[in-house]
Predict the 3D structure of the following.
Amino acid sequence: MDEYKQMKLSNQAYENIRRDILTCRLVPGSQIVQSQLTEQYQTGMTPVREALQRLAHEGLLTPVPRSGYIVSPVTYSGIRELFELRSILESAAVRLAALRGTEEQLRRILTLADFTYRYNDWEDYTRFLSLNADFHTAIAALSGNQRLAETLSKLLDELTRVFHLGLDLKDSAEEMRDEHLALAKALLKRDDDLAVKIVQSQIARSAERVSEAVMNNVRSGLTGHTGPDAGQISPVFDTLTLGGKFS
């Protein structure tokens, strides 16, 4: 097999396995069996092995000595850190975007804000979360700080797994659409203080949804959550650095 074809197969395996991790088809905490993956994705052992190594490097898989890999568990502490960082990054991003974006660019953000999803449809959740990432990273790009935009994009990618759980908790489609439109309108008015307030409130509500969803899944054993806080049933998102207190 030539090198190009081998690389193509490895990339295909990587994308397929990564998608199934991010959408929780491969359950957090579950054991990865390479022979099953080769059959499931109709590919060879070498592409799967290379894909697993890449995913472990990204933190989506956890190496286990003499056992291969498990899908990295969802932990309260990890989620909390991600949401705290998101609040810091997005607060800075929307403030800078309000100050630095051109009117044409900010009008495009308003156009990007008008999207929603179908509740209880996991395939549509994937489409929605892709549009959601596009919306938030487009705003970050207007900050004029490439490092900020790239870091936020990577962070939203890391949050995809728990976003899926949060969307399935209840139908919040219209609420989330309204939040995005309100943020876009604040940016268009160049009201940076209002934009920061809206995005922090949005992140707080997202964290609450995810917190409840993770607690529900801990009870049913679907998150692979381990550690000293595994038995907690109270919300873990008490405060964010910039986001205020959650009720």
User: Anything to note?
Assistant: The first helix runs from residue 3 to 22. Residues 225-247 have pLDDT under 50 and may be disordered. DSSP finds ten helices and five strands in the chain.
